[in-house]
Design brief:
Two copies of one chain form a homodimer. Chain A has 246 residues and is an alpha+beta fold. Chain A contains ten helices and five strands, in the order H-E-H-H-E-H-H-E-H-E-E-H-H-H-H. Chain A has helices at residues 20-30, 50-56, 65-68, 80-88, 98-121, 136-143, 186-198, 200-208, 214-222, 225-241; strands at residues 42-47, 71-78, 125-129, 149-158, 176-178. A four-stranded antiparallel sheet of chain A has the order 1-2-4-3, sandwiched between helices. In chain A, helix 1 packs across helix 5. The longest helix of chain A is centred in the middle third of the chain and has 24 residues, at 98-121. Chains A and B meet through helix 1, strand 1, helix 4, helix 5 and strand 4 of A and helix 1, strand 1, helix 4, helix 5 and strand 4 of B. Strand 5 of chain A pairs parallel with strand 1 (42-47) of chain B.
Amino acid sequence: MKTIENRRTIRKYSGQPVTDSLLHALLEKAGRTQTMGNLQLYSVVVTRDEAVKQRLAPAHFNQPMVTQAPVVLTVCADFNRTSRWCEERQTVPGYANFLSFVNAASDALLYTQTFCNLAEEAGLGICYLGTTVYSPETIIDVLKLPRLVMPIATLTVGFPAEEPPLSDRLPLAAYIHDESYRDYTAEDIDTYYIYKESLPENRHFVEINGKETLAQVFADIRYTRKDNEALSTTFMAALRRQGFLE
Amino acid sequence: MKTIENRRTIRKYSGQPVTDSLLHALLEKAGRTQTMGNLQLYSVVVTRDEAVKQRLAPAHFNQPMVTQAPVVLTVCADFNRTSRWCEERQTVPGYANFLSFVNAASDALLYTQTFCNLAEEAGLGICYLGTTVYSPETIIDVLKLPRLVMPIATLTVGFPAEEPPLSDRLPLAAYIHDESYRDYTAEDIDTYYIYKESLPENRHFVEINGKETLAQVFADIRYTRKDNEALSTTFMAALRRQGFLE
């Protein structure tokens, strides 16, 4: 897993095909990831069809990777399959509730990340689309996801046709806590964020957005309270529609 | 990452110490995992102190790994640090909402799984404790987690002192769908679950629980509707207490 140290998000893909045999081998290996009660509470919908990619694209703010990547994977929290199993085996499933969504979403995300680690090690490039949780209803409709199935992560996958610079990370001290959480002083914040804020690309980002600080770009433009509140309502509505809030 | 193919959940640990230098190197490498806006919306609380382990144990149903493992890691969805950054940089954070919890929990789980893959590759054994989402309030109190920090995954970590048998997995066909989700017929369920149901350990499990089917052990005993509904309420209350439902 040496690749983790040099991983980049890849948004441009070469013409080299991602064969089903490679893709399936990786999806199967990722299945070794631990899950709740070993129930594997996830499903993966594989999109290769151009028309389906076109229909998924708006859910991902029409980011070009969705239509340009050879493969799009939508990983779903799935309590439908386990519930169908229960129904076929003389018992009544009890998974139409929020905690079961949390459990299935956890399984789905852990599985997703093992897949990413494996795929990057195999030379593939990945872009993880956080937009999945912004427009779940469109994805549910396009992929025909039934009750108790909720899209949770989307990956665009292909062989890289770019090598973007390595992105920055906070120092380890910024996110580990010994024995109990010690809250951040103003001085801690300076120490942990000064490097990120000093990077030329981030200073440029602040400038072109007409802001004074990098945090303002995030809080005032990219991830605003207004959007987050509206999207919280949308997400809850989708959870309800998929039967996870009964 | 060849280790993924032979990974087992490890619940018994040898006396070999897990040094801070090894642990920190792995926690830092895992930080290469992609996150929302590269904000790294997670924190990790490291527990080595015996007294703290004793206080965490009830939250994990007193499973012996919690007190016996050299290290316990609690990975948290964390919008506190980013919000503190915003406050120190002349802007008002807007993350006291459900979608922000989903985003931070996603970052935390993806980070957790890269850590697991790296740790297993380094020869460590891990047990992922799903109990974290059952008793969040105890964990919040013991680890002194502030507003906008929610425990999401717990790992017990140490060098293995056991080699349990490899656990079964569903065949790949059970969880991949081409282009759109095709729901499961009774025949599909038979095909995908027959192997799991036929295993001697699972037949034994059905027998000692006085049940007729393996699915009944899950739905009637291990993960019941009644428990799931009660735990959904508990989890929502903890989310509210931590400020994610404002």
